[in-house]
Write a structure and sequence with these properties.
Number of domains: 2
Number of strands: 13
Shape: elongated
CATH class of the largest domain: Alpha Beta
Number of helices: 3
Largest sheet: 4 strands, antiparallel
Oligomer: single chain
Order of helices and strands: HEEEEEEHEEEEEEHE
């Protein structure tokens, strides 16, 4: 049995959990999220905790046990505190701005890169080069931030591009530092 899957999920008092068949819906102060659970798994609410149990000893079901527990725990955390990812834009002339429900970035291309912001996410830009993306759905947030980064990933020689705030870019020396050959 999964160690992660066995752990109970504490439910804060301001969060309402509704379990109907194979769907778990979590409603809190920030958002309302739902996830579909496999029929071999059961989610129960008892004593202010959610418990995920398995009904089969199949290998796939045991693998899904910890995943399902983590998905439900992320929903509870998301509707109470939310998730946040920070991005930095590095490069001369590179900048970003939010106009309505669009993120518009100048990334060294001949045209601005326009990305629609999904419902449920909030993007704020400070100093034209620091992006903060917040939202309740961890998967949606991660997918969006990854897509934004993929528009101009950081390069290894000067470090220019869109990078995660805590990301370390391994830099290369370049031609000049290679040394002379005889």
């Amino acid at each position: 049995m999964s160690r992660i899957g066995k752990a109970p999920i504490p439910v804060p008092p301001d969060v309402k959990v509704t379990i109907t068949g194979e769907e778990v819906r979590v409603k809190g102060p920030k958002d309302d999220l739902k996830v579909k659970v496999r029929p071999e798994l059961t989610v129960k609410q008892e004593d202010g905790h959610l418990i995920v149990t398995i009904n089969s000893d199949d290998r796939l079901v045991r693998a899904m046990h910890g995943l399902t527990r983590t998905l439900v725990a992320n929903m509870v955390h998301g509707v109470t505190k939310g998730f946040q990812r920070d991005l930095d834009i590095v490069g001369v002339g590179y900048r970003a701005a939010v106009e309505g429900k669009k993120l518009i970035m100048q990334l060294g291309y001949s045209h601005p890169v326009e990305i629609p912001i999904p419902d449920g996410l909030t993007v704020t830009v400070t100093k034209n080069v620091a992006l903060t993306v917040t939202g309740a759905d961890k998967q949606l947030l991660g997918d969006f931030v990854s897509f934004v980064r993929s528009r101009r990933p950081p390069e290894v020689y000067k470090g220019k591009g869109v990078k995660y705030r805590n990301e370390v870019i391994r830099r290369k020396a370049g031609k000049a530092a290679g040394g002379k050959k005889k």
